[in-house]
Amino acid sequence: MKAARLKSKYTQQQIADQCDISKSLLSKIENGQTSSAVATLSKISEALDVPLSWVLDGHPETDLVMLPTSHRTINADDENMGYSFELLANRSRFSRVEPTIVHVTPKEYNKRHEPYTHTQDEFIYIVEGAIELYYDGEKHYMGKGDTGYFKGIKPHLFIPVDNDGAKVLTVFIDD
Question: Any idea what the Cα angle at residue 108 is, between residues 103 and 113, rounded to 5°?
C-alpha cells in the first residue's frame, strides 16, 4: 500500500484526509502495526485507485491467478470486526472482481453491531451456516446456498444467527 501511495506521489496526510482517518492510523496500517476494517481499507484503495484485494494482500500483478488452498491464510487481526477473511486470489490491481471468503464470527463472540459501507458492489453466496444480512435498515435471513447482490455504499452487516458462525463467499465488484 505504501508503494502504491508513493508511486502515485501522494503524502500520507493527503490519503488520510481523503479517507477521513488520521495520518497516524494510515502510517500504522501501511507498516503492518495495526489491522483495519475492510471499509477503511476500501476507502484507502479507492484513494489510491487500486482494487481492495490489492491493498489487502499486496501481491504483484499477474495475468494468471492461482492460489492453492495451502497458500491461503485467514486474516483475523481484530476479533472485534465480527469476521475474518480469506482472499481467494491474489488479484492484479487492474482487476474489477475480488473473491473472498468471509468467516462470520459465531454469535456468542460477535461484538460487531455497526454496519459497513464501501464503494464496491458485493455478490454473496452462503457456503456454510446462516446469517442475517442487515442491508439498508432491513434484516434478511440467508441460509446455505442463498445468494445476494447489493450496493456496498448502503449500510450492511453480516449478523450471525447461531454459535456455528458462517462462511460467505463474497465477490467485491468495482464499477
Answer: 70
Chain-centroid distance of CA 74 in Å reads: 12
Q: Does the CA dihedral 174-51-72-60 come out positive or negative?
A: positive
- State the average pLDDT over residues 129-157: 96
79 touches 108 (CB < 8 A): no
- pLDDT per residue over 64-92, tens digit each? 666 677 777 676 655 566 777 777 875 55
Class at the top of the CATH hierarchy for domain 2-57: mainly alpha
Q: What distance in Å separates the CA atoms of residue 111 and residue 172, rounded to the nearest whole number?
A: 24
Cα–Cα nearest to 102, from 156, 139, 153, 30: 156
Confidence check: pLDDT of 2 > 90: no
Domain 69-173 classification at class level: mainly beta
Report domain extents, the chain.
2-57, 69-173
**What Cα–Cα distance (Å) separates residue 93 from each residue in 39, 43, 55, 65?**
18, 15, 9, 12
Residue 127 CA to residue 81 CA, distance in Å, equals 20
Bridge pairing between strands 147-151 and 121-135: antiparallel
Cell of 125: 453466496
Cβ(116)–Cβ(97) below 8 Å = no
